[in-house]
Amino acid sequence: MKEEADGWHSGRFQMRSLPVIACWMLIIGTQNGYSSKYRSPKNPEASMTLSQMISYWGYPNEHYNVVTEDGYILDLYRIPHGKECLGTASSRPVVYLQHGLTATAINWIANLPSNSLAYVLADAGCDVWLGNSRGNTWSRRHMTLSPDSEEFWTFSFDEMANYDLPATINFILKKTRQNQLYYVGHSQGTTIAFVSFSTNPNLAQRIKMFFGLAPVGLINHVKTPPTKLFPFLESLLKTLFHKRDIFSHTKLNEFLATKVCHVPIFHQLCESIFFIRYGPGHKNLNESRLDVYIANYPGGMSIQNLVHWSQIFTSRRLQAFDWKDPVLNMMHYNQVTPPLYNVTLMTVPTMLWSGGEDAFAGPLDVDNLLPNISNLIYHKRISYYHHMDFFLAMDAPQQVFCEIVNMIKKNMET
Predict the structure, then answer these.
(1) Cα 270 to the chain's mean position, in Å?
(2) What is the pLDDT, as a whole number, of residue 271?
(3) Residue 358 annotated in active site
(4) Which residue of 46, 66, 102, 211 could cross-link 298, Cys pair, CB 3.0 to 4.6 Å?
């Protein structure tokens, strides 16, 4: 145990040393003739907040705090209309955008306005809302708990589906005085929807249509290296990270993005770091926005959430979090084993987009999911799409966004 602890503390030391190393890399690169005029373009949004990013492009925006039933404070952002302010407030369709695992609402505004779903929807006449799940960069507050405590991080996507989503949707509909909204989810954002809309009929009735990007119900065929660790991941993670968070945003992200990655000799290294997460098919990515991506990804998650996904992988079932103790399971679920989530009970009209090269929402798992969607009205598989292409790809407006906009407009006419 002492050797493990020494290794862990050494790792933490190395992480703390990275800004110093990066600083020396920057100095050395400059001294070797790489002056600022030869650096890659810098995007000012790389050092901005969500509100600042939206304002930077001339869009109106509002910021709200949503308090969940269990006390978490979620940052919620609104783009009430596009630059031309089409229609009246009461006539604009309300659209809620829910990010995926280790992500934030920046997913939807990370590209140029013509290539970011939030701006495309706003310019099409929609009232757009961007949510943040508990524990990510923008939602690390609680009425009584500190994010430095283990208690704060005792949650997984169960709580996001049972507390975050109902609180957020009810807040939006109350604020807009609407009866229903359109829901767009990516990755875990679709999982939350499957769980919530199949177990909470009252909430499901408030969803006019569900647009799912890279839908995730099961991960039986995921072949990425981390899944090989899942069978013994729980005890390892809880020991190393003390039941708290992982992949959280740090100042290092912003430092690398704004001070290092735009220097030519380091640009390729930064690309490689980002593409480990993005996937190998990055020809469809606007690489001039790399500093914005690196500054904001990943956004963090709880260890318990990662453990929950490892349980789903090993059990091969979409189920609630297993507390590994019959007494605790009984306390949470009134049964000794975690309940299964029955996606077939979800009756919300659903449109899905999946990727042929998606490493996390792979074709086989999506194919197994589709028969369980009782009100599936559309599915499109984009053969060359990776997991993050659905909101970052340069051709996402043509492949995905325009179809969402057209369906919303079609519904408005009926």
Answers:
(1) 21
(2) 75
(3) yes
(4) 102
